[in-house]
């Protein structure tokens, strides 16, 4: 099946992105970079076609970069291109590719993956740290791009970006992806659910339907798989928190419906074909019983139509109106593969046979396999998505090939030497991204020095210290509020401006000395021993050392987030300045140029703020400094100690006491 479809693509569609399997020609869909070839590359290695893998890897590796004046989906390009290149890079050794010195920390496919990630990273330059949905591969975020992004388009970067950071040594990618996940968790509802679409500038949910399917699915998937790949207890706790809400509000008699994210009442009683990944995720945590119950429901739908429609109306037991298609999706066979690996239940083999027969009978064409336009009559549509070769055929193959190296349980591996010492690869435990690109977890420990289990300095939970307004040169905070007449309402809450992470305003101590000294004197009781904002020495270091009660002031001050949003500005400029100086209205709020006043007129006296040239490292520094979503970072260290069985019993028990 794979060989037939792959040969059809090479013969009729290459170098276009995808095959039109009825017309037997090609067309570009996601970016005009031979997407199906990149997406299918690691499948060649999984199925043992190493000679073709080497040929295609060399062909792709001759490309220098992905610079092009085209707009692409950040989500799709990440999971298909970045994920595909990283997976192929890690499988190159097994496939017999001639490796460059320093592998797995070096290689042409790794460099291409990083090049693409650098072009996607501009999407994360938002006030919340959650990314836009589209970028231009040459110019960054397009002018006028919508700020509305689906939840999956925000939370589906950690596996690829985390792997990239571990292999290249650049923490930018992993920290940006983790920050986006923490942002989604921060904006969850009071009952623990997330919606379908959110405004990445303000954190406002624009679509409040909550489920496990389209628009949300891979966010939950990456929480679960990120827990396993990176051994991160924070991701585990976030996943379990969401899972409890899913069990309470979304699950109804082994179906998962759509509900209101704020109240939990059912809004759409449908099963989506994308829901079928969920049993596979549950199997990763050993919840086989619940997973099998849901899988039986999904298999029943498959047998009813021969495929699973995009939407299935559960009360009426029929395909959803205008959602009757099946675009060769892999989610059901993915869960079947995971569950069979966990249970060896022969029923699951029969499910795989049913899927295989349906595809062969109704989806096969003269040059490939076609999308099913309507599952009720099996009419075809003229497209073969790249994920058919990346996911559907791969999971089917792994279901029946129980001895494949992907299923290695850790009983064997290969020791390789790197400049940092020895590490183990090909020892199993592969984690698939949401496009079924396997990542070898052992390789992530090859590109950095071995770290001690006990850190020299314990990290602390950072917190925000309320700061009074130090933004005006000639006006104190009290004067500012006396003009507005709102000083008695809530003097501790200050309005803030919303800017991009790479454009956060910096204030020097020399220029703002008087205002900051007043601020510190009014808050010294709460900040006396805190270094949570990241202080730097003032000029007179000797005086500071002799007086411990005096707080150290930083040369830069980053304002904490506010629950109220007054301004969001992403206007373009020309001089590349890093300054961002919106005017302050008489009521203490920041204004946008041309902002309408109460009498309906517009203020145009202040020039438009200038958009700074995007600098990824500045964005990373501001993510760290701003710490918008504080977490207990010592949990990971304690988890590592607890999971190490060689630690003394009493020491492990003392740490357990911190948790319980």
Structural class: mainly alpha
Count of DSSP E strands?
Answer: 21
Whole-Å distance between the termini?
53 Å
Q: What about the largest sheet?
A: 3 strands, antiparallel
Query: How much strand?
Result: 5-15%
Shape: globular
What does this 3D model show about the protein?
This protein is mainly alpha-helical. The chain has a domain at 456-527 and 551-629. 39% of the residues lie in helices and 9% in strands. The protein has 21 helices and 21 strands. The strands form nine sheets. A three-stranded antiparallel β-sheet has the order 5-6-7. A three-stranded antiparallel β-sheet has the order 8-11-12, with no helix packed on it. Strand 6 (197-199) and strand 7 (205-207) form a beta hairpin. Helix 11 (278-284) packs antiparallel against helix 12 (288-305). The radius of gyration is 27 Å and the shape is globular. It starts with a helix and ends with a helix.
Topology (SSEs and partners):
Blueprint: H1 2-12, E1 18-20, E2 25-27, H2 35-46, H3 50-61, E3 71-73, H4 74-91, H5 108-120, E4 134-136, E5 148-150, H6 152-155, H7 158-168, H8 172-186, E6 197-199, E7 205-207, E8 209-210, H9 217-230, H10 233-250, E9 251-252, E10 255-256, E11 258-260, E12 266-268, E13 270-272, H11 278-284, H12 288-305, E14 311-313, E15 318-319, H13 331-343, H14 346-363, E16 371-374, E17 379-381, H15 387-400, E18 414-418, E19 421-425, E20 431-432, E21 438-439, H16 477-484, H17 513-527, H18 541-546, H19 616-626, H20 634-643, H21 649-659
Antiparallel strand pairs: 1-2, 3-4, 5-6, 6-7, 8-11, 9-10, 11-12, 13-14, 14-15, 16-17, 18-19, 20-21
Helix pairs in contact: 2-3, 2-4, 2-15, 4-5, 4-7, 5-7, 7-8, 8-19, 9-10, 11-12, 11-13, 12-13, 13-14, 13-15
């Amino acid at each position: 099946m794979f060989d037939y479809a792959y040969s059809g693509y090479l013969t009729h569609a290459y170098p276009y992105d995808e095959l039109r399997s009825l017309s037997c020609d090609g067309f570009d869909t996601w970016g005009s970079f031979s997407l199906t070839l990149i997406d299918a590359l690691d499948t060649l290695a999984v199925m043992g076609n190493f000679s073709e893998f080497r040929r295609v890897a060399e062909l792709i590796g001759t490309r220098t970069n992905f610079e092009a004046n085209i707009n692409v989906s950040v989500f799709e390009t990440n999971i298909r291109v970045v994920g595909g290149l990283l997976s192929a890079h890690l499988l190159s050794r097994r496939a017999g590719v001639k490796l460059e010195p320093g592998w797995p920390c070096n290689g042409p496919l790794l460099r291409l993956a990083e090049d693409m990630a650098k072009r996607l990273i501009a999407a994360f330059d938002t006030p919340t740290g959650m990314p836009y949905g589209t970028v231009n591969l040459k110019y960054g975020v397009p002018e006028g791009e919508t700020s509305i992004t689906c939840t999956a388009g925000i939370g589906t970067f950690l596996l690829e970006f985390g792997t990239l950071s571990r292999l290249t040594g650049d923490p930018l990618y992993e920290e940006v992806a983790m920050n986006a996940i923490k942002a989604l968790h921060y904006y969850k509802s009071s009952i623990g659910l997330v919606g379908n679409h959110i405004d990445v500038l303000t954190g406002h949910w624009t679509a409040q339907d909550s489920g496990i399917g389209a628009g949300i699915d891979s966010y939950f998937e990456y929480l679960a798989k990120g827990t396993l790949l990176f051994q991160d207890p924070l991701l585990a706790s976030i996943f379990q928190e969401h899972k409890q809400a899913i069990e309470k509000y979304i699950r109804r008699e082994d179906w998962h419906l759509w509900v209101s994210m704020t109240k939990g009442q059912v809004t759409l009683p449908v099963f989506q074909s994308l829901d079928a990944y969920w049993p596979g995720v549950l199997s990763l945590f050993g919840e086989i019983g619940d997973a099998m119950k849901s899988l039986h429901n999904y298999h029943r739908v498959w047998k009813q139509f021969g495929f699973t429609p995009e939407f299935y109306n559960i009360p009426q037991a029929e395909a959803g109106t205008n959602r009757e298609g099946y675009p060769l999706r892999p989610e059901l066979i993915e869960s079947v593969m995971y569950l069979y690996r966990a249970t060896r239940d022969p029923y699951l083999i029969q499910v795989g046979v049913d899927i295989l027969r349906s595809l062969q009978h109704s989806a096969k064409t003269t040059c490939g396999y076609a999308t099913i336009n309507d599952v009720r009559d099996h009419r075809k549509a003229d497209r073969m998505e790249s994920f058919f070769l990346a996911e559907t055929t791969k999971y089917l193959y792994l279901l029946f090939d129980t001895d494949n190296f992907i299923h290695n349980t850790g009983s064997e591996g290969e020791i390789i030497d790197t400049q940092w010492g020895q590490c183990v690869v090909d020892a199993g435990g592969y984690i698939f991204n949401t496009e079924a690109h396997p990542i070898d977890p052992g390789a992530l420990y090859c590109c950095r020095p071995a770290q001690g289990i006990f850190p020299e300095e314990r990290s602390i939970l950072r917190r925000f210290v309320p700061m009074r307004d130090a933004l005006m040169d000639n006006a104190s905070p009290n004067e500012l509020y006396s003009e507005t007449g709102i000083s008695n309402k809530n003097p501790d809450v200050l309005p803030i401006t919303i800017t991009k992470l790479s454009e956060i305003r910096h204030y020097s101590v020399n220029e703002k000395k008087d205002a900051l000294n007043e601020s510190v004197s009014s808050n010294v009781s709460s900040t006396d021993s805190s270094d949570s904002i990241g202080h730097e020495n003032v000029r007179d270091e000797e005086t500071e050392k002799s007086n411990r009660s005096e707080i150290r002031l930083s040369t830069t001050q980053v304002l904490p987030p506010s629950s109220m949003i007054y301004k969001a500005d992403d206007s373009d400029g020309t001089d590349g300045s890093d300054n961002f100086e919106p005017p302050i209205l008489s009521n203490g709020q920041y204004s946008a140029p041309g902002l309408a006043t109460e009498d309906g007129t517009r203020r145009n006296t202040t020039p438009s703020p200038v958009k700074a040239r995007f600098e990824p490292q500045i964005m990373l520094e501001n993510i760290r400094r701003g710490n918008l979503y504080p977490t207990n970072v010592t949990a990971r260290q304690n988890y590592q100690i607890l999971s190490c069985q060689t630690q003394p019993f009493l020491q492990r028990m003392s740490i357990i006491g911190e948790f319980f």
